[in-house]
Amino acid sequence: MNNSNNFKKGSQDSFDNNWKNRRETKNNYWTRSSPKNQIELAFRMHWKLFNELMPKTSGKKVLEIGCGRGSISSYFADNDYDCTLLDISKSVIDVAKDIFYKTGHNAKFVVGDALNLPFENESFDVLVSIGLFEHFEDLDKLISEHNRVLKKGGIVL
Known about the structure:
157 residues; globular
């Protein structure tokens, strides 16, 4: 890391600065057509697996924790789920909002902490995260927050 900037490695500011300046930041990995690359294929396959795992009687309120661009939430939104996307970074949420606007998908966007979710108990039928858990040391707290906001009979993907 270049010492000329004022960002501490691993800090939220460092992440936001990196996120804003990466060429692929605004790439959308959701598609209705055939996937054009490996990342689109991976998200499509995640969706197919999640769709098979979810009970057909489950509700439609979904929370993606650590949403990034919202690629997996785009699949939920495209299938009439009521989506909420959460990330700790406003820069990330802004990218997700822009992608959802361009695709015509609807969602709520929340800047918030996965260890202290800003939602009432039992608020969501489905919780989904891809690439989240490896960023936390206290998995018990993270899982406890997942359980707190998940409705009885809900599913965590």
